[in-house]
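Homework-ish question, so no full write-ups if that breaks the rules, but can someone show me the predicted structure for this set?
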Amino acid sequence: MSKTTALTRDAALVGLLECGRLLDGTPGNGETDTSPDVVYREVIQILAGIMGADRATLMLLDDGLDSLSVIASVGVPDGAAGQTRVSVSEAMQQPSVTSSVAVPISFDGGALGVLRLGRLDEAPPFSKADLQFATVAGELLGHSGSLSALRRGTGEHGLFVSQLIESIPSSMLVVDRRLRVVSANRHFLESVRRGAEATIGRRLVDVMPSWLIKYAPMEEKLREVFRSGKTIDGGDVLQVSTGNVYFFRFVPIKAGGSIRQAMLLVDDVTERHKLGVEVRRAERHLTSVVQSASDLLASLDTEDRVVTWNPAAERVSGWTVDEMRGRRLWELCPAEDAARMQTMLHEPPAEREGRTVEARLVARDGRESVVDWSSSPITDDNGLVAGTVVVGRDLTSYRLMARQLIQSEKMASLGVMAGGIAHELRTPLAVIQVSAQLLQENPDDVDLSATCLQKIEASTKRAALIIDNLLEFARPQPEALGEVDVDALLDETLALLSDQLSLQRVQVRRARMPIGARVHGNANLLQQVFTNIVLNAGNAMPEGGKLTISTSADGGQFRIAFRDTGVGIPAADLPHLFDPFFTTKPPGTPSSGLGLAISYRIAEQHSGSIDVVGEVGKGATFTVSLPVG
Amino acid sequence: MGRKILVVDDEPDICWALSAALSDDYEVTSTGSGSEAASLLATGEYGLAFVDAKLGDMDGIQLAREVSALDLHTTVVLVSGFVDDDDDAVRQALVSGMLKAFVSKPFSLDVIRRLATEALPTRRPRGGG
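A: Not a homework solution, just the prediction itself:
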């Protein structure tokens, strides 16, 4: 970038010199249009060149002071000089400009207009030195009187141009073919600490610092410029004693087809050099952070299209950065997750902060990963949103681990349960064995045979139920989740259990939920929780009683409370209520002792919990808490 | 020594199974309650008791101890699907003679009938009369 700017600056200076000569009345080729519009267009073109700006607009304030007329513009497609009239606020808004400077042009304390310069896309922002130069240019434009003169229809443009050359923050020296100094600008004179009279007319070697002559073969290069007529790049020269770096360039000045003079440009690029080194170091550091991050990192433009895509994102998605560039990030999500992702990306920044959204990402090979996404807006120097940076944490392995943990925990509890399972299964097995033997012994006893067959069937069912419950407990649950209407689910569950409840003389009172409560979860599993708790309550009331089910919502939690008027729970039993095969049911009641253990596991799977309060003789209340939606 | 058999189990189906197996040859009573069993056994009418190791209100071995203290010469057989005969309490009870035998569920009727025959050798003749 620095070299490009320098090149443009050289060309601009040459133009400026020629322009100055032209306006001074120096004879040119005689065919140049010197009307104010053309000259000003040329002037801002030169200014834009010097500043490395992609756009430049010179605007004059209209008499009403509420609108600006474009006098001249460069790089603005619809900015035909003199034809565009815009409001002051419109003039300041140029969305595609990534960096801009606007300086006032005033004369005699009154505002005349605005000079606005802008850089587009990936150009670096304007520096302080750029702004200073633009300010000087703006001041000069005002003070040259040419703009006020322009309003009157006359002008002296030459003065402006020469003043502008004087104020350029580069050293500039013009030499003739004999390598004697023809002119030098203020910057050069100040930096070599010489007066104009001790410079003009002298030989180049006499005015240049000796170290420079020693390290940079200037005379040789200048002779080559005169010979070839081409600009020669002298490159960077380091002044060892100070550590300063200077950039040299030798430019031919053509007049009437021949090269009579050549220009030597010297820029102090020490700061830029240092900055370049630092920027490169910082860039390398940042790049390595992004590249080696284990999280997915992507930046998106304002249309959610991918701009950057780090190796972790490539690895998880299977799509390379080149393949992803221009695609919308949410195109990789299943339809139901894509909407959630879009919502997140377009939320106001304040609401996005600290929030993450879980959305699946379908990789190139169809494999799905669960990713926890967060995003934050990228703003430009003007505070406008230029895009979004998205960070995604691949939860797949974490989830897998959590699942394995639950599973191994289950296996561990199965070991603990083995004794209970044995007991539970041995009873129906004993009944089956005895029944079978009695059938064999008494084939003709019709009544006994009927009883035996009935016992075999009932015991087989009982054993099967134990095994079902056991498998239910051990099996990893399918993760089909959805919106669950808790209200409807409770109604459904109570309908299923109504026979059993009336048999047990249990009256059910149901307090309606004030709002349509919905939780995110698996309806079958939640129904199992409700069933277990209701049956448990029924068993706690052998003489019958009341079961009150009430629901409430607060703090992002739905609470479903089941209050019974049963025997209550001894304090010693409370810690064991959710242990597998723990049971307090009256003797003879078929029970696996797994109901509450499974219920608790399910509530946990839904990021919820089950709490119990109860005292002997005072009934018990089981409260299921589930996070909202 | 009593001639009757008592079956003590909180599973009604087990009570049914043991009664069905023995009622042809013996007079069998069953109960699911440990305390009720204790008072029935105290009458001295029972020569043999099949007792479940885990009762709702009492431990099977505890019941055997109570019976043994009454010195009624009642044979007690422990029946269980939960503990095994390598259980410490069971082994001690067997060694001390408090328990005559241990039967694990599920069981064959032959085992049950053999235990009954051993405990109550003078069988009531089959077919009545």
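Now go work out the reasoning yourself. Hint: Chain A has a mean pLDDT of 77.
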